[in-house]
Protein backbone atom coordinates (compact mmCIF):
# COMPACT_ATOMS: atom_id res chain seq x y z
CA UNK A 1 0.00 0.00 0.00
CA UNK A 2 2.77 2.35 1.01
CA UNK A 3 4.70 1.37 -2.11
CA UNK A 4 1.76 2.23 -4.35
CA UNK A 5 1.35 5.63 -2.71
CA UNK A 6 5.06 6.28 -3.20
CA UNK A 7 4.85 5.39 -6.88
CA UNK A 8 1.83 7.69 -7.33
CA UNK A 9 3.66 10.51 -5.59
CA UNK A 10 6.71 10.05 -7.82
CA UNK A 11 4.47 10.10 -10.91
CA UNK A 12 2.78 13.31 -9.78
CA UNK A 13 6.13 14.93 -9.13
CA UNK A 14 7.44 13.89 -12.56
CA UNK A 15 4.26 15.13 -14.28
CA UNK A 16 4.44 18.41 -12.39
CA UNK A 17 8.06 18.82 -13.38
CA UNK A 18 7.29 18.05 -17.04
CA UNK A 19 4.28 20.37 -17.25
CA UNK A 20 6.14 22.97 -15.24
CA UNK A 21 9.04 22.84 -17.67
CA UNK A 22 6.66 23.06 -20.64
CA UNK A 23 4.85 26.00 -19.04
CA UNK A 24 8.12 27.78 -18.34
CA UNK A 25 9.17 27.20 -21.95
CA UNK A 26 5.85 28.51 -23.30
CA UNK A 27 6.11 31.59 -21.05
CA UNK A 28 9.45 32.56 -22.54
CA UNK A 29 9.20 35.70 -24.62
CA UNK A 30 9.14 39.49 -24.60
CA UNK A 31 7.42 41.46 -21.84
CA UNK A 32 6.92 45.17 -22.48
CA UNK A 33 5.21 47.70 -20.21
CA UNK A 34 3.29 47.28 -16.99
CA UNK A 35 -0.30 46.84 -15.81
CA UNK A 36 -2.94 47.72 -18.43
CA UNK A 37 -0.40 48.77 -21.03
CA UNK A 38 1.67 45.60 -20.72
CA UNK A 39 2.36 43.60 -23.86
CA UNK A 40 3.46 39.99 -23.44
CA UNK A 41 4.63 38.08 -26.48
CA UNK A 42 5.61 34.54 -25.59
CA UNK A 43 6.39 31.27 -27.35
CA UNK A 44 2.97 30.00 -26.27
CA UNK A 45 1.26 32.94 -27.94
CA UNK A 46 3.31 32.35 -31.08
CA UNK A 47 2.32 28.67 -31.21
CA UNK A 48 -1.32 29.61 -30.66
CA UNK A 49 -1.18 32.08 -33.56
CA UNK A 50 0.44 29.46 -35.81
CA UNK A 51 -2.26 26.91 -34.98
CA UNK A 52 -5.02 29.49 -35.59
CA UNK A 53 -3.35 30.48 -38.86
CA UNK A 54 -3.17 26.86 -40.02
CA UNK A 55 -6.80 26.15 -39.10
CA UNK A 56 -7.95 29.36 -40.84
CA UNK A 57 -5.98 28.44 -43.98
CA UNK A 58 -7.59 25.01 -44.10
CA UNK A 59 -11.09 26.44 -43.63
CA UNK A 60 -10.55 29.14 -46.28
CA UNK A 61 -9.19 26.60 -48.74
CA UNK A 62 -12.23 24.40 -48.23
CA UNK A 63 -14.58 27.37 -48.66
CA UNK A 64 -12.76 28.40 -51.86
CA UNK A 65 -13.08 24.92 -53.35
CA UNK A 66 -16.76 24.73 -52.41
CA UNK A 67 -17.63 28.14 -53.88
CA UNK A 68 -15.72 27.71 -57.15
CA UNK A 69 -16.71 24.13 -57.96
CA UNK A 70 -19.37 25.22 -60.49
CA UNK A 71 -17.83 28.46 -61.76
CA UNK A 72 -16.59 29.10 -65.27
CA UNK A 73 -12.83 29.54 -65.71
CA UNK A 74 -13.08 33.32 -66.22
CA UNK A 75 -15.30 33.78 -63.14
CA UNK A 76 -13.02 31.49 -61.16
CA UNK A 77 -9.98 33.64 -61.96
CA UNK A 78 -11.81 36.77 -60.87
CA UNK A 79 -12.98 35.09 -57.66
CA UNK A 80 -9.43 33.97 -56.87
CA UNK A 81 -8.14 37.54 -57.20
CA UNK A 82 -10.79 38.85 -54.83
CA UNK A 83 -10.33 35.90 -52.50
CA UNK A 84 -6.60 36.61 -52.15
CA UNK A 85 -7.26 40.13 -50.90
CA UNK A 86 -10.07 38.96 -48.60
CA UNK A 87 -7.90 36.15 -47.22
CA UNK A 88 -5.21 38.58 -46.02
CA UNK A 89 -7.83 40.63 -44.23
CA UNK A 90 -9.27 37.51 -42.57
CA UNK A 91 -5.80 36.43 -41.45
CA UNK A 92 -5.24 39.78 -39.73
CA UNK A 93 -8.60 39.60 -37.96
CA UNK A 94 -8.00 35.99 -36.82
CA UNK A 95 -4.54 36.83 -35.48
CA UNK A 96 -5.86 39.82 -33.53
CA UNK A 97 -8.74 37.79 -32.08
CA UNK A 98 -6.37 34.94 -31.15
CA UNK A 99 -3.98 37.28 -29.40
CA UNK A 100 -6.85 38.94 -27.57
CA UNK A 101 -8.16 35.55 -26.38
CA UNK A 102 -4.65 34.64 -25.24
CA UNK A 103 -4.67 37.66 -22.94
CA UNK A 104 -2.51 40.02 -24.98
CA UNK A 105 -3.64 43.65 -24.93
CA UNK A 106 -4.34 44.06 -28.65
CA UNK A 107 -5.55 47.60 -28.06
CA UNK A 108 -2.11 48.60 -26.78
CA UNK A 109 -0.50 47.14 -29.90
CA UNK A 110 -2.91 48.99 -32.17
CA UNK A 111 -2.40 52.27 -30.32
CA UNK A 112 1.38 51.88 -30.48
CA UNK A 113 1.15 51.19 -34.22
CA UNK A 114 -1.40 53.91 -35.01
CA UNK A 115 1.19 56.31 -36.41
CA UNK A 116 2.69 53.59 -38.59
CA UNK A 117 -0.77 52.61 -39.91
CA UNK A 118 -1.58 56.23 -40.78
CA UNK A 119 1.70 56.62 -42.65
CA UNK A 120 1.18 53.40 -44.56
CA UNK A 121 -2.40 54.37 -45.35
CA UNK A 122 -1.33 57.69 -46.88
CA UNK A 123 1.55 56.11 -48.79
CA UNK A 124 -0.58 53.26 -50.13
CA UNK A 125 -3.75 55.26 -50.77
CA UNK A 126 -3.63 54.84 -54.54
CA UNK A 127 -2.80 51.15 -54.15
CA UNK A 128 -5.96 50.64 -52.08
CA UNK A 129 -7.96 52.58 -54.68
CA UNK A 130 -6.69 50.24 -57.38
CA UNK A 131 -7.55 47.16 -55.31
CA UNK A 132 -11.06 48.38 -54.47
CA UNK A 133 -11.63 49.34 -58.12
CA UNK A 134 -10.37 45.92 -59.20
CA UNK A 135 -12.86 44.21 -56.89
CA UNK A 136 -15.70 46.36 -58.25
CA UNK A 137 -14.69 45.59 -61.86
CA UNK A 138 -14.71 41.88 -61.15
CA UNK A 139 -18.00 41.98 -59.25
CA UNK A 140 -20.06 44.13 -61.66
CA UNK A 141 -18.36 42.57 -64.74
CA UNK A 142 -18.00 45.91 -66.52
CA UNK A 143 -14.88 44.62 -68.28
CA UNK A 144 -14.08 41.11 -69.44
CA UNK A 145 -10.99 39.47 -70.86
CA UNK A 146 -11.23 39.92 -74.64
CA UNK A 147 -13.08 43.25 -74.47
CA UNK A 148 -11.82 46.08 -76.69
CA UNK A 149 -11.46 49.31 -74.72
CA UNK A 150 -10.26 52.85 -75.39
CA UNK A 151 -8.36 54.73 -72.69
CA UNK A 152 -6.62 58.08 -73.20
CA UNK A 153 -6.91 57.71 -76.97
CA UNK A 154 -5.39 54.20 -77.03
CA UNK A 155 -7.41 51.21 -78.19
CA UNK A 156 -6.49 47.82 -76.78
CA UNK A 157 -7.79 44.31 -76.29
CA UNK A 158 -7.91 43.25 -72.62
CA UNK A 159 -5.99 40.04 -71.98
CA UNK A 160 -5.59 40.10 -68.19
CA UNK A 161 -7.53 41.57 -65.27
CA UNK A 162 -5.72 41.61 -61.94
CA UNK A 163 -6.61 42.98 -58.56
CA UNK A 164 -4.52 46.13 -59.03
CA UNK A 165 -4.11 46.57 -62.79
CA UNK A 166 -5.70 45.65 -66.09
CA UNK A 167 -3.51 44.81 -69.07
CA UNK A 168 -4.42 45.29 -72.71
CA UNK A 169 -2.65 44.78 -76.04
CA UNK A 170 -2.76 47.82 -78.32
CA UNK A 171 -3.08 47.80 -82.10
CA UNK A 172 0.68 48.28 -82.46
CA UNK A 173 1.38 45.19 -80.31
CA UNK A 174 2.33 47.11 -77.18
CA UNK A 175 1.11 46.19 -73.72
CA UNK A 176 -0.60 49.02 -71.84
CA UNK A 177 -0.97 48.62 -68.07
CA UNK A 178 -3.97 50.52 -66.73
CA UNK A 179 -4.36 51.09 -62.96
CA UNK A 180 -7.83 49.93 -62.03
CA UNK A 181 -8.82 53.19 -60.33
CA UNK A 182 -8.88 54.84 -63.78
CA UNK A 183 -11.96 52.77 -64.63
CA UNK A 184 -13.79 54.58 -61.80
CA UNK A 185 -12.38 58.09 -62.15
CA UNK A 186 -12.15 58.41 -65.95
CA UNK A 187 -14.35 57.71 -68.96
CA UNK A 188 -13.40 54.41 -70.58
CA UNK A 189 -14.97 53.31 -73.88
CA UNK A 190 -15.79 49.62 -74.06
CA UNK A 191 -16.41 48.73 -77.69
CA UNK A 192 -17.68 45.24 -76.92
CA UNK A 193 -19.63 45.68 -73.68
CA UNK A 194 -22.97 44.67 -75.19
CA UNK A 195 -21.83 42.59 -78.17
CA UNK A 196 -18.84 42.04 -80.42
CA UNK A 197 -20.28 43.94 -83.40
CA UNK A 198 -19.42 47.65 -83.78
CA UNK A 199 -20.41 50.25 -86.36
CA UNK A 200 -17.64 52.08 -88.18
CA UNK A 201 -17.55 54.93 -90.71
CA UNK A 202 -15.47 56.20 -93.61
CA UNK A 203 -16.09 59.80 -94.69
CA UNK A 204 -15.43 61.17 -98.17
CA UNK A 205 -16.13 64.40 -100.01
CA UNK A 206 -16.92 64.83 -103.71
CA UNK A 207 -16.95 67.90 -105.91
CA UNK A 208 -20.10 69.96 -106.37
CA UNK A 209 -21.94 68.84 -109.49
CA UNK A 210 -21.12 65.15 -108.98
CA UNK A 211 -23.81 62.52 -109.51
CA UNK A 212 -24.84 61.82 -105.89
CA UNK A 213 -26.71 58.61 -106.76
CA UNK A 214 -23.61 57.31 -108.50
CA UNK A 215 -21.54 58.20 -105.45
CA UNK A 216 -23.88 56.28 -103.17
CA UNK A 217 -23.86 53.22 -105.42
CA UNK A 218 -20.07 53.25 -105.67
CA UNK A 219 -19.67 53.47 -101.90
CA UNK A 220 -22.07 50.60 -101.30
CA UNK A 221 -20.38 48.51 -103.98
CA UNK A 222 -16.96 49.08 -102.41
CA UNK A 223 -18.28 48.13 -98.97
CA UNK A 224 -19.86 44.94 -100.31
CA UNK A 225 -16.50 43.85 -101.78
CA UNK A 226 -14.45 44.62 -98.67
CA UNK A 227 -13.55 41.63 -96.50
CA UNK A 228 -14.21 42.11 -92.79
CA UNK A 229 -17.42 44.12 -93.34
CA UNK A 230 -20.54 42.24 -92.28
CA UNK A 231 -23.30 41.63 -94.80
CA UNK A 232 -25.89 41.95 -92.05
CA UNK A 233 -26.62 44.56 -90.83
CA UNK A 234 -26.19 46.01 -94.30
CA UNK A 235 -23.86 48.99 -94.95
CA UNK A 236 -25.63 52.26 -95.70
CA UNK A 237 -24.67 55.70 -97.01
CA UNK A 238 -25.59 59.09 -95.57
CA UNK A 239 -25.40 62.37 -97.46
CA UNK A 240 -24.06 64.28 -94.49
CA UNK A 241 -23.60 67.90 -95.50
CA UNK A 242 -23.04 70.60 -98.09
CA UNK A 243 -19.57 71.72 -97.06
CA UNK A 244 -17.56 74.72 -98.26
CA UNK A 245 -15.63 72.78 -100.88
CA UNK A 246 -17.38 69.43 -101.23
CA UNK A 247 -20.47 67.31 -100.83
CA UNK A 248 -19.83 65.14 -97.76
CA UNK A 249 -20.82 61.46 -97.65
CA UNK A 250 -20.34 58.75 -95.07
CA UNK A 251 -20.35 55.01 -95.67
CA UNK A 252 -21.46 53.22 -92.47
CA UNK A 253 -20.78 49.54 -91.98
CA UNK A 254 -20.48 46.91 -89.25
CA UNK A 255 -17.50 44.78 -88.26
CA UNK A 256 -17.16 41.88 -85.86
CA UNK A 257 -13.68 42.82 -84.66
CA UNK A 258 -13.21 46.51 -83.87
CA UNK A 259 -9.58 45.84 -82.96
CA UNK A 260 -8.56 45.56 -86.63
CA UNK A 261 -10.99 48.12 -88.08
CA UNK A 262 -8.22 50.62 -89.10
CA UNK A 263 -6.97 48.07 -91.64
CA UNK A 264 -10.49 47.53 -92.94
CA UNK A 265 -11.01 51.28 -93.27
CA UNK A 266 -7.70 51.69 -95.08
CA UNK A 267 -8.51 48.96 -97.62
CA UNK A 268 -11.98 50.43 -98.13
CA UNK A 269 -10.48 53.88 -98.85
CA UNK A 270 -8.20 52.32 -101.48
CA UNK A 271 -11.25 50.75 -103.15
CA UNK A 272 -13.22 54.03 -103.02
CA UNK A 273 -10.34 56.00 -104.57
CA UNK A 274 -10.02 53.48 -107.40
CA UNK A 275 -13.79 53.42 -108.04
CA UNK A 276 -14.00 57.23 -108.11
CA UNK A 277 -11.11 57.47 -110.58
CA UNK A 278 -12.71 54.88 -112.89
CA UNK A 279 -16.05 56.75 -112.84
CA UNK A 280 -14.65 60.30 -113.02
CA UNK A 281 -15.87 61.28 -109.57
CA UNK A 282 -13.64 64.07 -108.24
CA UNK A 283 -12.48 64.33 -104.64
CA UNK A 284 -11.87 68.09 -104.33
CA UNK A 285 -9.32 69.98 -102.31
CA UNK A 286 -10.37 73.08 -100.32
CA UNK A 287 -11.02 76.32 -102.22
CA UNK A 288 -9.45 79.48 -100.91
CA UNK A 289 -9.51 83.14 -102.01
CA UNK A 290 -6.35 85.09 -101.18
CA UNK A 291 -6.36 88.89 -101.53
CA UNK A 292 -3.23 91.08 -101.91
CA UNK A 293 -3.30 94.75 -100.90
CA UNK A 294 -1.00 97.42 -102.35
CA UNK A 295 -1.05 99.81 -99.42
CA UNK A 296 -2.97 100.80 -96.30
CA UNK A 297 -5.88 102.16 -98.34
CA UNK A 298 -7.44 98.69 -98.45
CA UNK A 299 -7.86 98.64 -102.22
CA UNK A 300 -7.01 95.17 -103.61
CA UNK A 301 -4.82 95.06 -106.68
CA UNK A 302 -4.57 91.26 -107.11
CA UNK A 303 -6.63 88.22 -106.16
CA UNK A 304 -5.59 84.58 -106.46
CA UNK A 305 -8.39 81.98 -106.57
CA UNK A 306 -7.88 78.24 -106.32
CA UNK A 307 -10.52 75.58 -106.98
CA UNK A 308 -10.54 71.84 -107.68
CA UNK A 309 -10.11 72.33 -111.41
CA UNK A 310 -7.77 75.28 -111.95
CA UNK A 311 -5.68 78.06 -110.42
CA UNK A 312 -5.80 81.64 -111.73
CA UNK A 313 -4.33 85.02 -110.94
CA UNK A 314 -6.73 87.88 -111.67
CA UNK A 315 -6.03 91.61 -111.77
CA UNK A 316 -8.57 94.08 -110.47
Major β-sheet annotation: 5 strands, antiparallel
What's the SSE pattern?
Answer: HEEHHHHHEEEEHEEHEEHEEE
Shape: elongated
Mean pLDDT: 77
**Biggest sheet, strands in spatial order?**
6-5-4-3-7
Question: Are there runs of 5+ residues with pLDDT below 50, and where?
Answer: 308-316
Number of H/I helices: 9
Strand element count: 13
Query: What is the quaternary state of this protein?
Result: single chain
The SS-based structural class is alpha+beta
The share of residues in helices is 40-55%
Distance between the termini: 145 Å
Strand proportion:
15-25%
Outline the structure in words.
The chain starts with a helix and ends with a strand. The protein has helices at residues 2-26, 43-68, 73-101, 106-112, 114-123, 125-140, 182-185, 212-225, 261-278, and strands at 29-32, 39-42, 148-151, 154-161, 165-170, 175-179, 189-190, 198-206, 236-242, 247-255, 288-293, 300-306, 311-315. The longest helix has 29 residues, at 73-101. It is of the alpha+beta class and 316 residues long.
